[in-house]
Amino acid sequence: MKKRRSRYLGLGLLLAGYTFALFWVFTRSTPVISSRPVTIRIAHWQIEKGPPDGVDAIIKRYEELNPRVKVEQVLVPGRVYNQWMRTNLVGATGADLIEYGVWLDGLTDIPARYFEPITDEMMRPNPYNKGTALEHVPWVQTFTDGLMNQRVNAPDPGQFYAVTLTEVSERLFCNQELLRTITGTDQMPATFADLRVVFERIRAYAARTGRPIYAMAGARDNASWLMQYLLQGAMLQRSQRNDRQGNLAVYPWEELGQYLEGRWNYRTPEAQAGLALMREVSLNMKPGFVQSLRDAATQEFLRGDAVFIFAGTWDGTSLRRLATFPIAVYRFPQPTREDPVMGPYFYGAFADGGGGTAMEFYLNKSSAHPKEAIDFMHFMTSVEGNQLFTDHSGWLPSIREVKVPSDIMAYRTPLDCYSFGAEYMTGMGSTVAAAVMRNLYLLTETHGSVDQFVNAMEAAMPEAVRTDLRKEISNRAIIVRPQDVTIMANAALGWRSGPEGSPLLARERLESSQTQSEGLMLLMGRQLEVAGPGK
Amino acid sequence: MYPPRSILPLLLIGPLLAAGAVAPAGLDRAWSALADSRPQDVLRQLRRDADSRADRLVWAAARIGAQPATDANMREAEVVLAELETGPDEIAAEAAYLRARIYQLHLNEPDFAQAAQLYAELARRQPESHWAQLGLVKLGLLKLYLLPDLADPGADRLAAAEALLPRIHEPLLRRDLELQIGQAGIVLHQPQARFLPHLIAAAQAGGITGTAREDLIVQIGVLSERAGDWARAREYFERYLADYPTNVRAFTIRQKLGKVTRQLAQEGGA
A158, B186: Cβ pair inside 8 Å? Predict the structure, then answer.
């Protein structure tokens, strides 16, 4: 009897196990062979809190709409991103869509070599905007900035290469409780002069209490962003004077060329004023901060060891999700006409973001599924896709008609300030950037000075500028040379497909942008020739 | 007993392959491969000494586009192109254009004077060919920045390029050279009256894409303002704000628009 009962129990258990296994296989497990024949990968370094969630939300919805396609998000830490990108692109194993930024050290040739332009697609409406106010709007014009930054950085002036996911700006994030504890008020300084007073009170508080509190959280990244911001503001008058072209913008190659023509350098009074402001602020950061990266500044701020952190809005979600205290977001208080340092060179309020969009994704030339990759680009920058990104990441949208949540409204920069684009620092080229970062400690450390930094930079600049200008020319040559064959091929195909055929339009556009690029190459070459070899 | 018509094309493949020629559909595939940056596919498919001139042109184009882009490969392509350019047809024009491009852009040590000479000869032989017209634009660029001699301060570089304009009949190509003359005029420190008309002509022709269009509109507005041409400045500032309202330059342009509007009001021109 007992034996029979245990046999039934065994069979029962077996049956239950089998039923559970069936349930699991049919409802929970992943099929051995994917039901989605196409897999595309999207890679980026935005591993802060927020963006991965935003991209996941886009992917989830996209896969619902496109059962054939599986999208994988590849998160690559910033520390290894450059090496990862270079090796994968060289080996033709890179993701289909890749984030890239023109400032990435030593990678200026990448777009020309490995990315495919998407100009034709940009001229047509985004199909995923059907039923929205942007239904008939060309894709490029659906971006809040018309892809301004991307166009400025494009290796070919007539071509579009990337889409962006978010608008960025730089803000002063404040530990409100700490500010109140130290100053007795929530009142934020309105001008740079007011900020000096707050700095003084924080220093006095730290000395009085013995607490190691600094006004600003410090790291080389944050210092570099702050210095770009202050220098471009201090140099506005100079930029305006140097704008012989009348573009109201100074491109990186122009900054380099103007340096060779002697139209600016770090000894000019405006530059020295900007550097002096930077030194003032950096003396309110923890000594030795130039050895640390942005994570260290974030941790310093989150520990309550600094009242403010100057950071991009890209750090906003991390700061807000990780902080145990309320964080307020402000625009950095700017010097006025009365400022003793920058007043004589005051031009007006300067941009702390300027509405430009970023997190640029490029199409890999080696993509096995370019059609699907472009389709995914369309979705992630549609009203629906970008709204999902914004809602789940806490980052600003890059697309018009997307609703901005009230808690990040402060990240938006209204069009109320001047910008000529030029920041006279790391954006000019990788060689100049390396020199700036190598010498930054001379400006920011206690025993440093503006003079020490200027002397070191002026020793390095003549050769660094020439090197970067030569790189600008050779990068453009990488793009321009293969275009001869493409133009001829499009002509042959276009004449067969008739005057309205897309190869013919592609040929016309390519001819025009190639001529523009060649003009720029010759112009830069002339600047180098006229300047002669560096001493 | 004739073979069915449907198999005739199949029967032709053998002789065509034997002759090293590619049927028109095959030629399209070859050009498509080049348009997709796959020159190696073409080089595998075609022979340098193919009977058909069209095939030899595609082969030379593929040789130029293939990696590694060595001078030896360029010289090899040039031999074929030099032979093709002696013909009377469009292929001759394409070959001559590509040959000039080799000297201007593809050799490790460019020979700009030789490129300029080849562009000029092409324009003399086949002036209405698209490739001759495009070659004149490239010749204009060389004259603006490099030829005859960079060290010659007295050379009127704009005039040399301007002289080419009447010979360019394709509106888009003429526009491109107008734009380049305008931009060079600024860089070469020419008086504004000399180069601004070229920028305006380029803008009026339309169709410029990317940053170049946006810059051009701003440029004409700002340069007109500097010259005291308030009406034109206002026209271009208004156009910019209509087309690029959210660009970071819009703030500065609004200030400038306010200023020129006040000037016009003062002078009774509003």
Answer: no
Q: Which residue has the tokens 């020419």?
A: B190
CB contact under 8 A, B253 and A154: no
Reported ipTM: 0.89
Q: Which of A421, A131, A435, A456 is nearest to A267 (CA)?
A: A456
For residues B214 and B250, is the Cβ–Cβ distance under 8 A? no
Sign of the Cα torsion A214, A217, A223, A228 reads negative
Does the CA dihedral B72-B76-B82-B85 come out positive or negative?
negative
Place of tokens 């506005």: A236
The torsion angles phi and psi of A72, rounded to 5 degrees, stand at -110, 135
Element (H, E) at A39: strand A38-44
Test B145 with A159 for CB contact under 8 angstroms: no
Residue type, A438: R
Helix axes B130-145, B112-125, angle to 10 degrees: 140
In chain B, the residue whose alpha carbon lies closest to the alpha carbon of A416 is: B251
Give strand pairing partners of A363.
Answer: A97, A116
CA B269 to chain A, closest CA, distance in angstroms equals: 24
Gap from A513 CA to chain B (nearest CA, Å): 8
- Whole-angstrom CA distances from A46 to A351, A385, B223 are 24, 18, 41
Does any CB of chain B come closer than 8 Å to the CB of residue A525?
Answer: yes
| Probe site for chain B from A102, A241, A512 (most B CB atoms < 10 A) | A512
Each of the 270 residues of chain B gets a pLDDT tens digit; together they read: 344 444 444 444 444 443 344 555 688 899 989 987 889 999 998 888 888 999 999 999 999 999 889 999 999 999 999 999 998 899 999 999 999 999 999 999 999 999 999 999 999 999 999 999 999 999 999 999 988 766 666 678 899 999 999 999 999 999 999 999 999 999 998 999 999 999 999 999 998 877 788 899 999 999 999 999 999 999 999 999 998 887 888 999 999 999 999 999 998 755
- Residue indicated by tokens 């888009």: B172
CA distances from A391 to A305, A394, A405, B29, B175 (A): 30, 6, 7, 46, 45
Beta partners for residue A171, in sequence order: A311
Contacts of B252 in chain A (CB under 8 A): 248, 418-419
CA distance A356 to chain B (A): 8
**Residue A273 at interface with chain B, using a CB cutoff of 8 Å:** no
Per DSSP, A357 falls in state E
DSSP secondary structure code for residue A143 in this structure = B
Query: In chain B, which residue ranges form alpha helices assigned H by DSSP?
Result: 8-18, 24-35, 39-45, 53-65, 71-84, 90-101, 112-125, 130-145, 157-162, 171-187, 192-205, 210-226, 230-243, 250-266
Cis peptide before A125 (omega within 30 of 0): no
Look-up: residue for tokens 């969630």?
A53
Tell me the per-residue pLDDT of A56-110, one tens digit each, with 9 for 90 and over. 999 999 999 999 999 999 999 988 999 999 999 988 889 999 999 877 777 777 8
Query: Parallel, antiparallel, or unpaired for β A214-216 and A306-312?
Result: parallel
Burial of B256 (0-12, 13-18, 19+ CB in 10 A): buried
- Asked if A130 is an interface residue toward chain B (Cβ–Cβ < 8 A), one would say no
CB neighbours (10 Å) of residue A473?
17
Distance CA A240, CA A236 (A): 6
Cα of B250 vs its chain's centroid, Å: 31
Task: Give Cα B31 distance to the centre of its chain.
Answer: 19
Residues of B in contact with A503 (CB under 8 A): 35
Structural domains of chain A sorted by starting position, each given as residue range(s) with its CATH number in brackets: 38-169+355-411 (3.40.190.10), 170-352+418-447 (3.40.190.10)
Q: Is A415 on the interface with B (CB under 8 A)?
A: yes
